[in-house]
Amino acid sequence: MSEWITIIGLEVHAEMETGSKMFSACPVVDSVEAPPNTAVDPLSLGMPGTLPVINKLAMEYGMMVGLALNCEIPPLNQFARKNYFYPDLPKGYQISQYDRPLAINGWIDIDLSDGPTKRIRVRRAHMEEDTGKLTHVSGGSLVDYNRAGVPLLEIVSEPDINSAEEAEAYARKLRAILRYLGVNSGDMSKGVLRFEANVSVMRPDDADYRTRTEIKNLNSIRSMYRAIQYEVNRQIKLYESGDTVRQATLGWDENAQKIIIQRYKERPDEYRYFPEPDLPVVVVSREWVDEVRARLPELPDAKKQRFVEELGLNDYDAGVLVAERAVANYYEAVLTAGIEAKAAANWIISNLFGLMNKASVDREAIADIPATPQKLAGLIKLVNDGTINQNIGVKVLEMMFESGQDAQTIVDEKGLAQVSDTSLIAKAVAQVIKDNDGLVQRYLEGQDKLFGALMGKAMGALKGKGNPQVVREQLTEQLNALRNDS
Predict the structure, then answer these.
(1) CA-CA distance, 312 to 306, in Å (whole number)?
(2) String of DSSP letters for 431-483
(3) How do beta strands 93-97 and 140-144 pair?
(4) What is the mean pLDDT of residues 48-65?
């Protein structure tokens, strides 16, 4: 396997979250939740005599993505007719862009677990209309045109990706950028973001790329990863058995965990592209580009750099916090409430994420959890000022996560305030030493590591509420006194 090089290019289809469709005023609806064929109009249904009109906001959203991907925005854009006949395209062609796309020559930097950052070039990003949605049933197929005409941005990478792991990193980074921009929800389960992978393999001494295949309509990043791995292995086995790879369109069967050959690939000229006669060439002035650029938010890479340079976070923590815009917003809200940067990061990454994972709450839904940023900040302040200790704080967070109560209320109702009274702690420590004579003797004989066990028993005797620093001081003092007496 090591003698083969994997070559992958990704095509990403992202619906733009506009209120109306790409070429008409027909509203955009949730194509999963809305009843079929309730958001359609003559253009969606391909009625003769209809005339498209370009959705300016959709174009600006596409330009935002292009700029965020470090692309050039050419001064002229043009739509074309991409001809093919299928039930999800009632007019027999799709209005897309061909030789004059919206954005070209960009790049994304991806972080790899086993090496440095890698740059993946973006060849182009072009606007088009989405198609209808087919549901195959026994004896035929049902078609829903709610999705037909929804603004769709196709983002095409260069074949710079060399493994399923790199493809996953690229996909996650691109999805994060789209969500930061607010132009796409990233909800792959609803088909608003779809991936297609062009896959081939080659020997190190090959003069050119070998035949590629295209895996269509991958509806999750996990499925994309598995499909690419399967297809790479399939191609290598074909070549090593003396066979060849035929250019084909493939599907991924998630249940069977296998590739399905759907059809052998058509040539690009079979689409018979030609300029859309019903739409003008779009002139993109530099003033318009600058206006759109001014709307760009702080993007993940810039935010990560700021978290590292200004807040003192390490690369890993900063990367985790910026991976989802909702998490970054939550974190910054905790900071705004007066919490130190590293402490806030530790509580979110080490404790809060664990509770969310246990409850099967996606990180992108962090804004909806009962433990709001302000409530988490209140908890951290109680720990910092010594009202409760760290261990109690973790337990309070669990209760906050379930109930939504603020930390102070939970501490008061449950009687969880930290015990710092030296006399009470001294008495509890003395009892622990008395009850654990064997353990104490082994410690006094030189098994210093048993101090931790005695410390745990002392904290347990105080029901976890003892001030750890005072408990440690008292335990050390009383054990040293016994050692001196012996």
Answers:
(1) 9
(2) HHHHHTHHHHHHHHTT-GGGHHHHHHHHHHHTTT-B-HHHHHHHHHHHHHHHH
(3) unpaired
(4) 97
pLDDT digits (tens, 9 = 90+) for 453-481: 988 888 888 888 788 888 888 889 888 88
Q: Given phi > 0 = left and psi -120 to 50 = alpha, else beta, which region is 281?
A: beta
| This prediction's pTM | 0.86
pLDDT of 39 reads 97
Interval 71-90: pLDDT, tens = 999 999 999 999 988 889 89
Q: Any bridge partners for residue 161, and if so which? A: 8
Q: Based on the number of CB atoms within 10 Å of its own CB, is 169 exposed (0-12), middle (13-18) or buried (19 or more)?
A: buried
pLDDT digits (tens, 9 = 90+) for 356-373: 999 999 999 999 999 999
Query: In the chain, what are the domains?
Result: 5-292 (no CATH), 298-414 (no CATH), 422-485 (1.10.10.410)
Would you state the structure tokens that stand for residue 468, as one six-digit string? 């750890």
Answer yes or no: are the C-beta atoms of 309 and 337 closer than 8 Å. Answer: no
What percent helix, strand, coil does the chain show, rounded to 5? 45, 20, 35
* 3-state SS, residue 185: coil
* Residue 27 token pair: 């509203």
